[in-house]
Amino acid sequence: MRKSKRGYNGDVVLLKHTVAEQLRAEMVKGALKPGEKIIERRWANTFGVSQASIREAINLLAIDGFVTKALGRSARVISLSPEDVRQIYEMRGALESLAARLAAEKGNDISDVQKALITMERSAQKDDVAALLDANLAFHLGLCRLSDNLFLIDHADRLLTPFFAFVRIRALVSGQSGPLWVKDFPAFRRIVELIEEGEGETVEQYIRRVMVRIADTAYASWERKPRP
C-alpha cells in the first residue's frame, strides 16, 4: 500500500531525528571526538541510511550546537579550546549579570528558573549528568529570557547552546558523575534569591564574580573522573 504524502513526510522527519540521536550518541561515547569531521558516506553506511539523511541529521545537530558548519566546509563536532572557554565565560558574565539585574528590577516571574534548579538538584541525586546539563542550560537561558531584552536573549541563545553541547560531550565521555556539579548549586540558589528580593545591582556583581571563579577551573573539571 502506497503511503500518503503526509505519512511519507512524517517518516522522513522521524528518520532524520533518529539519525541525529544516533550521531549524538556516537559523540557522547567518544566515537566522534570534538573537532572531528563528520564523513557522511561513512555514517550512512554505518546506520544503513542515505547520505541525505545524514546531512539532514547534521543540520539538526548544528541547530542544537553539537556540530559546526562553515560555508563550503565539512561539518565537524564542536570543539572549544581552554581560551575559547575563558572568553565565553567573560561573555556569559556580561550577559547573564545584566539579565539578572533587569529581571530583578522588573520583578518578572522566575518559576521557570526555579524549576530548572530543582531538576538539576534531582538529576545530581540520580547521577544523571545528561539531564543535569540540560536543566543547567535551561536555567541560564531562562535567566536571560527574564531580561525581556530580545537582543540579549538572541546573543545568549547563540552563545550558550553550542557551549553546553560541548560541555555535555566532554563530561559524558569522561564518565563524570552528577555529584561533582553540586558545589555550584548554592550559587544558583543565591542568584534566584537575589532576583526574588529585587536586588538588581547585587545580583549583577554576584554573577560576574561567579563566572570569573568558574572560568578558572571549568575546562579541567569537565574531564574530572568520578572517585572509585
Question: What do you see in this structure?
Answer:
By secondary structure, the chain is mostly helical. It is built from 10 helices and 2 strands. It folds into 2 domains: 73 residues, Winged helix-like DNA-binding domain superfamily/Winged helix DNA-binding domain (Arc Repressor Mutant, subunit A); 140 residues, Four Helix Bundle (Hemerythrin (Met), subunit A), CATH 1.20.120. A two-stranded antiparallel sheet has the order 1-2. Strand 1 and strand 2 form a beta hairpin. Helix 4 packs across helix 6. The chain is elongated and about 55 Å long. The protein starts with a helix and ends in a 7-residue tail after the last helix.
In short:
The protein is mostly helical and 228 residues long.
